[in-house]
């Protein structure tokens, strides 16, 4: 199993130094022999090393740096004077070294290195990479996408050609045909099934046509059947927009409420409520821990609150908050319950009966494209001039369509909702949740929350702080770059992508190999 990562340990640097010696002293006589059998690059402490491993063994490496002057600056002068225009659109980096162990020169390792270098450089803002390519491997460098931009330099024994690689050049190269399959564990966007893709390629319908009205009504009826709510309002936008429209209705009430939170999206609701200048108190609990129902009841029993706002499925922790108990408390004290169900709706069956307002989206567990936001209601909403028209749910009562909604979005949603017939998608996501729970237990991974739901799972990686970055270089896209995850050093995997089963098995194999390598 070949896999990639950034070198960070002394063990890795020693292996790189040995490979450098074998390549640039013994094979290419660029440097003088040394009894240590190791060659440390002059700019070692400035280099970033991308390495390819075969199981536990170093198979190849590429080292690059961004500090000027480059070695080619010293040999040619300012390299920008020689570079083609398409290489001048961003930061430059220099490939100091590229070497593959003789036992692994099968082409695959070079292509892994080129792909990893291209991806890493591109994601870190580099527009082009420069290299002094040995003339004996010029054909290989050309296959990787490097192209000469100046005359050869060096000695007859060790002659090198100044070459440049850009993202576009790599994408047009032979190496780019060696596609490393990527596996996504993101909670969105979701990779689209063939049926959903066909829905997006269908001819558009005007939102003023009868055909569109009938299709939209079918979709709303499906959503109402799934949710148990009395009304469903569709907006063109994200889950944040749906929550804005929900909070706008609380603004119209003009009464004090309670926001209950235990994660980043509870924090977001609080910030949105502040922007609307709502009057509210906050019951805040530790991330990943359940609500203290006794404390909430104590607050509601004071009679000080007319509404309660909470997150049902807290995306930042993978925590499913207790809906039925909160429903009972709100009913007992005549408090209107409002919920962010953006991550939970479609992930598992639950009823919104008795909930004042709740939100959902098309692009999470339901599995179609992001872009449609839902606000469910159990009371008929009336229009108001005191909120922006686009957030005014009252304008869409009686099946009115006040604003443009692309027909392909509605059509694709209708296709996606068919997966819920006979509970099939619910069952699929539930099986995936059990699969994850079993596997993380085998690997000793402790999930942040015990109250999971079949959409997203969170763990704190203490032992291997670069695990997510290294996984990405081997084709596994974990969810870890959101600010709220970075601050708390959290990693997440979602089970909503179509190829989850295959992706999860491969990731677990990779993770086992990764842990053995580092232990």
TrEMBL record:
Keywords: Aminotransferase, Pyridoxal phosphate, Transferase. Signal peptide: none annotated. Pfam families: FeeM (PF21926). PROSITE patterns: GNAT. Residues 4-168 form the N-acetyltransferase domain. One of its GO terms (molecular function) is transaminase activity. Its cofactor is pyridoxal 5'-phosphate. InterPro entries: Acyl_CoA_acyltransferase, FeeM_cat, GNAT_dom, PyrdxlP-dep_Trfase, PyrdxlP-dep_Trfase_major, PyrdxlP-dep_Trfase_small. PANTHER family: 2-AMINOETHYLPHOSPHONATE--PYRUVATE TRANSAMINASE. This is Aspartate aminotransferase. It comes from Psychrobacillus psychrotolerans.
